[in-house]
Amino acid sequence: MHREQAEAMGSDLFQGFLGFVSLLSAIVSIVMAAHAARHDRSLRAWLLSSAFGASMFCLGVVVERWDTRELRAQLATYEEAMRAARERANTVAARRPADAANRAAAPAAEGPVTPAQEACAINDTWECAEKLTLGQIDRDEFRASDQERYYYVDVTEPSAFTVTVDPVPQRKQIQLTVHDAFRREINERWFIVQTPGSLDTRVRTVGRYYIKLRLSSCCPQTPEPYAITLAS
Question: Fewest CB within 10 angstroms: 18, 31, 82, 119, which?
Answer without folding.
Answer: 119
